[in-house]
Structure formats: C-alpha cells, structure tokens
Amino acid sequence: MRVTIKDISRLSGISTSTVSRVLTNNVHVSPETVRKVKEAADMLGYIPNGAARSLVNNRRNMIGLIVPELENPFYTEIIQGVEETAAGYGYGTILSCHMGNTDSCDSIPKLLELGVDGIIHAGLLQEEDQIQYLCETNIPYVLLGRKLENAESSCVVCDDYGSSYKAAKYLIGLGHSEIVFIFGKQKSFSSHQKLNGYLDALRDSGIEKDECRIVKGNLSYDGAYRAVSQLLEEKVRFTAILGSNDMMAIGAMDALKHEGYRVPEDASVIGIDDIFWGKVSGIDLTTIHVPKYEMGCRCFEILKDLIQEPEAEEAHCVLEGKLVERKSCRTLL
Whole-model pTM? Predict the structure, then answer.
C-alpha cells in the first residue's frame, strides 16, 4: 500500500499540512521540523506522487537536456553535472541527443510533448532557428557552451577567448613562434572566440600571423587528422599545434605520429577541454581544463530560477579555464 502524508504525520507527530509543506520544499518550515518529517518519510519508504504534485503547481519537475553528440567525452561531464544537480533539487532529466542531425529542432517539440518545465540546449553551433523556436514556445531555457549575439538568452560558457590566449601564450613561453591553430567550425561562436585568442596572443608577443598555419578541423578527431596530414604533405613549417578542442589535438597528435614525428620532441601539441582521453598514458595531453561539470551545475541552477520565477532576467555565467601541464609540450632549445 502506498505511503501517504497522513502516515508520515502520524509517525512524526507533525500535522499533515506542515508535512505537505516540507515535502513541497516550502521555505517557511523550521529545520528541526524538516528533519523529523524526512526521517519519518525515509523510515516509511515514502515515494512522492509526481503526477499529483504537477497538477497542483502545473509543473512536472522534469527538464530537457539537448546535446549534439555523445562521442565526445566533453558532453559526458556536462550531462553528469546537470543530472546530479537537478536530482538534488528533486528534478528529473530527459536527455535528447541529435547526433549531428541538422534538423535538431525536432528535439524541442518532442521534449515539450513530454511536459518538461525547461530546456538546457548544449552545443557550440549558433543554430539561430532553434533559439527562435525556443523563444516562441515561451519555455524557460538556458544555452550551454555558446552565447548568441543576436538574442537575449541565459547562457553558461567557458572563457573560450581566454583559454585559447592562455594556451598560445604557454607555447610562446616555451619558445615556439611557428604555431599551427586548428579551427573548429565557421558557425561556432566558441571557435571564433578561440581563434581571436590565438591571434591576439601572437600579436601581443610580436609574432606575425601566417594564414598557412590556420587550418580547419571541423571540431573532430578525423578533421584535425586530415588537416595536419595535409600540412605535413605541403611541408608547412611549424614547431607546435594548438587544437581548439582536445579531440582535434589528439587527432593532430596521431597524424604526426603516423608520419613518423614524435610528440613533443618534433612538435608540441596543446588542446582545450581536458577530456578523459587526454589523460591516458601515451597521450598525456597538455591542455586547458574547462570546468565541464560545473558548467552543467550552473546551467541547471539558472534554469531552475527561470522556472520558478518566469519574469527573472537573463543570466550570463562565464567560467575560467586553467592550464594543465602533461607531457605533450616541450621547451625549444
């Protein structure tokens, strides 16, 4: 038989109305009362009736999380941050991954049909049509990983410009001046921020830009592998490579090794993200750590506030990347 509020009231000695307030997270209840009610609920194995609660407050305590891919471990930590933080506030998470499907707007109506209270949209591409669609639905949403120039939207991003600037200056500090930059995608806000960071680091260090050393990696391992292979075939001079994400940096490392080059003896490589694979022995990628889990946490916290207070102003959160030194870079003699 299902445990009810009346059962908890009898066991705890607290009135049913107060028990109800505790179970709906009402702030106007003393900590001691909350403790007694929760202890009684745990002892009885109480399971909240989410459907009934949603009828009362017009919410299901469910959010939607849209990610572009699961292959890149970058998103794994973000998902974990969102789900664990949401669970701590009593929210469930429905994950939608469109895996490169260009018509990823399909994810939004499907989530709305499931009755989510809000949506977190993760990814690097601008995808203005999706944001326009979100705006038209009037559902609370937060962007993760990008900020749109032409739309007022809450967002959580890492300081992409600062991360790239920091990575480039690190290589320059090691004596490198012939540095290849692997660009992501043209429609990616993050990619352009990182390119600007690289270019400003060169300029501030008195190093001239060389267009031959700026290549496109399409945000992927394969794209970077092909780009670096072509550089080697064309005999472009360089002593270091800055991949604007770790997947591309690892692709660059493998292209070098395939052609008989040693990392870091013949070429240094640095990435941005600090994904799990970069820590693997034999890769040991020096990188800029992006606080992916924290980004997921902050995203949910902002979304929760928008759900609870629809008139709240947009929130913009920018987190800082930190250098992580491993074995893929060396000082030039």
Answer: 0.79
